[in-house]
Amino acid sequence: MNYRFANRMNKIPRSFVREILKVTDDEDMISFAGGLPNPQSFPVEAIKDATSKVLTQDGDKVLQYSTTEGYHRLREYIAERYQGQGLEVGVEDILITNGSQQCLDLVGKVFLDRDDGVIMERPTYLAAIQAFGLYEPEFHPVPLLDDGVDLHALETTLKEEDVKLFYTVSSFQNPTGITYSTSKRKKVAELMGEYNTILVEDNPYGEIRFMGEDIAPIKSYLPDSILFGTFSKIVSPGMRMGWIVAPPEIMEKLITAKQASDLHSNYFTQRVVYQYLQDNDVDRHIQSIRKLYKLQRDQMVQSIRKYLPTGVKHTSPEGGMFLWVTLPEGVSAMELFQLAIEENVAFVPGETFYTEDPEINTMRLNFSNSNVEEIAEGIKRLGKAIEKLQAN
Amino acid sequence: MNYRFANRMNKIPRSFVREILKVTDDEDMISFAGGLPNPQSFPVEAIKDATSKVLTQDGDKVLQYSTTEGYHRLREYIAERYQGQGLEVGVEDILITNGSQQCLDLVGKVFLDRDDGVIMERPTYLAAIQAFGLYEPEFHPVPLLDDGVDLHALETTLKEEDVKLFYTVSSFQNPTGITYSTSKRKKVAELMGEYNTILVEDNPYGEIRFMGEDIAPIKSYLPDSILFGTFSKIVSPGMRMGWIVAPPEIMEKLITAKQASDLHSNYFTQRVVYQYLQDNDVDRHIQSIRKLYKLQRDQMVQSIRKYLPTGVKHTSPEGGMFLWVTLPEGVSAMELFQLAIEENVAFVPGETFYTEDPEINTMRLNFSNSNVEEIAEGIKRLGKAIEKLQAN
Fold it and tell me: Which residue among A56, A64, A135 sits closest to B238, beta carbon to beta carbon?
């Protein structure tokens, strides 16, 4: 049979990260390539207790179909947590999703016709390019500076292009680790209102701050915007539990799209996660993750300074799971990747995080899923690979 | 802010079923409206054991990110089950999804550009209209006869229209309960090949046959086609575990779409379901569901014959969860619905299952989620409502 696929399938880049993960399965490999939380942080015993409890108390309901919006008490918990951070969010503003990746898909479905304008940070989260890409929009990249998006470039793009959405990872961005300053958050909120553009704020790492002060999401300055959250980094990514916060008119469309996409998110797991949150000191658990990742991040920063040549620049994130490295001008991270694999260390070449005109001398390093010894050794190996590349 | 949604959002019908389910939450209401399995059939204790086991043995991995394709051993189990039924299906032909509803979304994403032709059974599964509808195809309805699709109408449509997909629920169809005969299955397979059209065969109820002989899916006569399956009707719908079977070239696209949609299905639950399947006699469990539903189906058929006027026709399904009722010509099931609600009995008016020109005198009755006493009483109430309507 001769298959006739939809046009959109030609527009999506193959995930280089997915290809890399195949290479890095080797036991001797130290991998800074993935974006995995440290499994040491998973509350296995507490989840076991929570599961046993919900099945014992309410087994028949827990295994049955449920509502598209998600488990009411879980949504209530999330809303109250936001309220504690000063955000005005009610239970009806929250839709439970399959991790925040599904938030991207649902927002694309609800908003994007072919060729609609979407502003993306430059560089940006690869899987957002893929998720939105399937709705065939026109991407407008706007550069990131140390304290968030380049406001001048943002305003110019908003002025010159018809833009429906601006997608940002405002705290400890994937891939760069960059966080928007408070003043920049306020200014972005203003611009969105001025140019009638929907802000889509993805915040998977916000809770994983291990230095500095907590900063409120941009949504706190712009109630009429979309915010994504997830339990992937603080409870378990394998459970695929995320959520969207959105104002009523948008929420109605999102629910319709969610229903058509998969009826509702796994209700069994929603109940387990809620029970876990009820029965445990979640803030203490988050503190322990922060502590763990700070050690790993510090080790990576120190090792970079020790083992990589002086021409190499890097971000120093105050949270999250990633650090961004810029090699000297003209050096190709993709070429380095081949040599690094020979030294048994892996990373993701930065070019995969650009919608166009990639900066080929950049790379993303993950520090959450390696212990401090592995980090020191891995960066040392990376130093060797850079040396080899420069000797060529 | 003035919201600019995507065009596709205007094309999707609101789910009338969802609206109905709100009305039928009342305790006194006997509802034949939903499509829920009987919770009596949920293996609560066995799931509790399975969960405890996977978390104890492999907690760190069970809670971590996993592969887009799904848990390898679960896919192997599914493939082997098909092989036992004589289908040539390998592990690499299977992608784990969030229930079979997500199969619909992924197939829409991979195949459908705006105005592409899709043949739907008439009537058809409401949520398939919604899922495909978001990709803005042109629907071509083809009538169902007692033993499956009207072959003549199917061939005429294939000849006259450019059709990419034919969507069928080949066994115990939702909403009608109709099952394709073996000869019709073979003929459909031939026609698909002849007209280069992809068969999309949804088979959520195939295992729930309580009378007659098992019939192989159409896919067994047409390897180059797509088949959906689910654990919703035999283990738990709340867990949202389904799968797609597809040939390699299509599978590659489906995996790309799945990755963009939500990275992968809940890995924790995949492991739990697999453990459950390993440690229990699944066939015996399925037998007990068949037995339960047969009693309920028999009660419904008997009650219809006893309490509904002779002009009322109905299907007598050999499996599944639904039965289709046709009222005398000109009688509106939607009008009946209002009177039925007053009598505290609910159903779904048939018109919601048509892509166009609905037969307004039809209705869907679910028999899986009421016990035999409720079924007798509910159909009696329905009889009263029909009497009232005819007296008007």
Answer: A64
A56 vs B contacts (CB less than 8 Å): 48
Query: Is pLDDT of B23 > 90?
Result: no
State which fold the A58-279 domain adopts: Aspartate Aminotransferase; domain 2 (3.40.640)
Q: ipTM surpassing 0.90, yes or no?
A: yes
CA distance B392 to B387: 9
The alpha carbon of residue B234 is apart from the nearest alpha carbon of chain A, in Å, by 11
Nearest to B260 by CA among A7, A18, A226: A18
Q: What is the pLDDT of residue A72?
A: 97
Place B392 in a pLDDT band, splitting at 50, 70 and 90. Answer: confident
How do residues B187-237 score in pLDDT, each as one tens digit? Answer: 999 999 999 999 999 999 999 999 999 999 999 999 999 999 999 999 999
Q: Which residue has the higher pLDDT, B374 or A27?
A: B374
User: What residues in B contact A47, CB-CB < 8 Å?
Assistant: 55, 59, 63
Q: What is the pLDDT of residues B85-104, one digit of tens each?
A: 999 999 999 999 999 999 99
CATH match of B65-279 with 2.40.480.10 = no
Q: Which of A48, A346, A212 is nearest to B272 (CA)?
A: A48
Listed by start position, the domains of chain B span 7-42+284-391, 65-279
Query: CA–CA distance from B388 to each of B302, B304, B335 (Å)?
Result: 22, 17, 11
pLDDT at position B14: 63
- Is pLDDT larger for residue B26 or for residue A68? A68
pLDDT at residue A1, as a whole number: 82
Q: What is the mean pLDDT of residues B260-281?
A: 97
Chain B hits for A100, CB-CB cut-off 8 Å, are: none
Distance from CA of A286 to the nearest CA of B (A): 16
Note whether A359 and A176 are within 8 A (CB).
no
Which parts of chain A register pLDDT below 50?
A: none
Three-class secondary structure of residue B370 per DSSP: coil
**Closest residue in chain A to residue B163, using alpha carbons only:** A4
Q: Which CATH number fits domain B7-42+284-391: 3.40.640.10, 3.40.720.10, 3.40.50.300, 3.90.1150.10?
A: 3.90.1150.10
